[in-house]
Amino acid sequence: SGGGAVYHDQGNLNFAWISRRTELDLDATFGMVLDALLSAGIAAARRAQGSLTVGGLKVSGSAFAYRLGAALHHGTLLVAADLELLRRCLRPTLEDVHTRAIASRPSRVANLDGTVPGLTVERMEEVLQCAFARATGGPVLEVDERSLEPPAEAVTTLAGWDWTWGQTPPFTWTVRAPFAGAGDQLQLEIEAARVVQARWVGMTPFPGGHEALLSALAGCRFEA
User: Are 60 and 33 within 8 A, CB to CB?
Assistant: First the structure.
């Protein structure tokens, strides 16, 4: 669905609601999640941008996708996540990156088990399923996880460079070279995780010249 970064560990519960595009009612889907939280003894509130909070701290974020006639609303619930690791993982490691992608909105976060001690992901999953069932009038169906084993070729694809890096949206990275003077910058235009153009902006001559720089970097992979 795009959007900002999502942290996930065994203390975080993901939910998804899929419907026809014409039938998606965000007030209703958020209402089901709020109802589930209330059933667990937690009074949460919805922010305008789609986050859910408890005591002013974010416990859930959502994102949305629309494809042809279908719509997806999916989100997270921080039940008992490692919040220190979350903060470290979501701290940007690159400065001076400019992109058209939707930026994350950093927020102060909390776990739901801080409000209801002992709350588990399994218990939260149960009340969420029940809330969805109450709202739709349908039964809760259990799926054997063994039937969801992905094909080997799908595992290979999802672990490959073309998927993990090659789907990166276009962005520009501005780098300060070690020998550069004040205001000197190397600008890299990245598309599909490869350098498509390099520019030297500044007064200090770049060793080897700009053409050598461009030919050396063009086509190079951009990865951590």
Answer: yes
| Gap between the Cα atoms of 60 and 51, Å rounded | 6
Amino acid at 151: P
Query: Could you tell me the CA-to-CA distances from 209 to 78, 144, 196 in Å, in that order?
Result: 51, 61, 18
The pTM (predicted TM-score) of the whole model is 0.72
**Run of H or E including 183:** none
Q: Let me know if 1 is exposed, middle or buried by CB neighbors in 10 A (0-12, 13-18, 19+).
A: middle
What is the residue-wise DSSP string for 65-128? EEETTEEEEEEEEESS--HHHHHHHTS-S-SSEEESSPPP----B--GGGTSTT--HHHHHHHH
List beta partners, residue 18. Answer: 72
CB 98 within 8 A of CB 89: no
Instruction: Provide DSSP, 112-176.
Output: GGGTSTT--HHHHHHHHHHHHHHHH-PPPPP--GGGGPPPHHHHHHHHSHHHHTTTPPPEEEEE-
Which DSSP letter does residue 202 get? Answer: S
Q: What is the pLDDT of residues 119-152, one digit of tens each?
A: 999 999 999 999 999 888 877 777 777 777 878 8
Dihedral class, residue 198 (left if φ above 0, else alpha if ψ from -120 to 50, else beta):
beta
Q: pLDDT by residue (tens digit) across 154-164?
A: 889 988 888 88
Q: Which helix (H) or strand (E) holds 209?
A: helix 209-217
